[in-house]
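Incident log, structure service

09:12 report received: a user says their structure output differs between two submissions of the same chain.
09:20 pulled the input from the user's history:
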Amino acid sequence: MWNFIIYTNKRTNALAAYIYSSVYFISLALPTANTTVVASPSTSTITITSLRPHNFLNVYFSGTLSVMSAFYRPLFTKIKFKGKGYYIYKNLRNTITPQFGYSHRLYVYAYFMSVKFLSKTSIFVFGFIKSDLSKLSHAIKAMRPINIFTGRGVRFAKQVVYKKAGKISSYR
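09:34 re-ran on a clean worker, output below:
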């Protein structure tokens, strides 16, 4: 679904790649020092090779790849909570309202994330932006941290929870 055009300006020695689809348009300026670009229409690939890689090119290409992969690779976290009377509600605008035993309501706004309830005690948060995903999931987790004596609270899935031993009576 993606088409591309590679443009080389002989006068200014500039190299550009235009990648477009029916929805998106991306323009990339490519470094020209010892760089070759080969486009294969049969396999729909663009191969960019450089004979002299250095830190700027590595940072440039890794940043470009992270931007390109953000269009098709969603990220997700799974959050579980444990405790008597703990519930989470969500309205149509993705405003999350946890009921974690506080007398007042706390709100978490998920602007660019989607939230799905897997069960009564676990939710699934997913989206395309890693910083927004981690900010939202850590905001939910910070509302009710894990109690080290009872093990109740909000945690990420597959997170190890260590419980602390309570006071031991001397009259055993």
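09:41 both user submissions now match this output. Likely a transient worker issue. Closing.
09:42 reviewer note: The longest helix spans residues 55-69. The first strand starts at residue 3 and ends at 9.
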